[in-house]
Amino acid sequence: MPRAFALLLPPSEGKEPGGSGPPWRSGTCALPGLDGPRAEVLAALDPTGRGVAAEPTLPALERYTGVLYRELDAGSLPGPARRRLRATALIASGLWGVVAPGDPIPAYRLKMSARLDPLGRLSTWWRPHLTEALHDRLARRVVWDLLPQEHAAAWDPAAVPTARRITVRFTTAEGRTVSHWNKLLKGALVRHLVTTGLDDPDGLRAFTHPAGYRYEPSLSDLDDEVATVVLRHPG
């Protein structure tokens, strides 16, 4: 029987400008327990309230326009896959902590690795808040954790009772980790995961990545609690 799963995704530096929704306000995003910390970061970034805080909003899935989201191409997903994406994905953010695909957010620029006075480095500042908020949201779920290092530092997965956490590594034929095109490569994988509802790495045997990467069970660490999946390019 398929198990409930969740996706942890990075944001993108590329963002659609403008928007048609009202400015962000408390109570409009997923994980409302984060609204207090969100307001703190927003105030530190924009003390006057006349910058980001006053800007119009778009749903996060429309706001983020980077290579992962272009490759995911959410607008062309079949209805069930689109609903699964909206129900299971959480997108990390230096400003918002995490947001769901449908959450209304303004255009902004703030990396999770940035230092912001008086809060300090955001990944460190967010860590207790996100760990607490994700505890119940991810409990007993299979979590496909596709976060890069700077966003992974913003929560403590060991303190969250997931059913299984799965990370993914793309490698060259020689075994070197592919980093430059990482987000691009993850976009096609996310599309496959929300289309299939896959809750076990073994299901990737049938996955042919558009760029040629193939699942390599012999190179993967398939631990029951924390697994690392390797997708290798044939060369």
From TrEMBL:
A biological-process GO annotation: response to hydroperoxide
An example Gene Ontology CC term for this record: cytosol
Organism domain of life: Bacteria
Pfam families for the chain: H2O2_YaaD (PF03883)
Protein name (database record): Peroxide stress protein YaaA
